[in-house]
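<instruction>
Derive C-alpha cells from the sequence
<data>
Labelled lines for chain and fold
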Amino acid sequence: MNCMLKKTIIYSMLGLMQVGMFSSVAAAAPVSLYNDNSQQISYLSRGHGPDRDHRRGPGRDDRRDHDRRDHDRRERERREQERREQERRRIHNERKRIENERHEREMRRRAHESRKEWRERQEREKQRHDREMRTIAALLIGIAIGSANN
C-alpha cells in the first residue's frame, strides 16, 4: 500500500508539472494558432463589427486623437515642404531671369567697340552665359533630387 501511494503521488505531481508547463507554453503562444479568427479580431478592433457601439472606450478616443495629431503633423510637414520647394523654384526663376537680362545686355554692341572686339566679347559672354545656365540648371536638379528624397 505504501508503494502504491508513493507512485500515485509521484504520477500526479508529474501530471501537474506537465499541465503547468503546457499552460505557460499556451500563454506564450499567439492568440490564433491557425489564423482562423485573425480577420474577425482586426475587424472588431476597428469598430466596424456588430457590437461596435459597445466597444467604444477611453482608449479608443485616445487612439483617434493620436491618429488625428499624427495626420495633422504630416499635413503640416507636407505643406511646409511644398512652400520651401515653391520658394526654391521662385528663386531659381528669378536668378534665371536676371541672368538672361544680363546676357541680352552684354550681347549688344557698344558704341565705342570695333566689330572684332564685339565678336570676341560675344564669344566670351556666350561661354560665361552657358556656364551660368548649367549652374542654375544643376541647382534645379538638386532641388528635384532633394524633394524626391523627402
User: Anything to note?
Assistant: Residues 127 and 133 are 10 Å apart (CA to CA). The radius of gyration is 38 Å. The chain is about 80% helix and 0% strand. The mean pLDDT is 78.
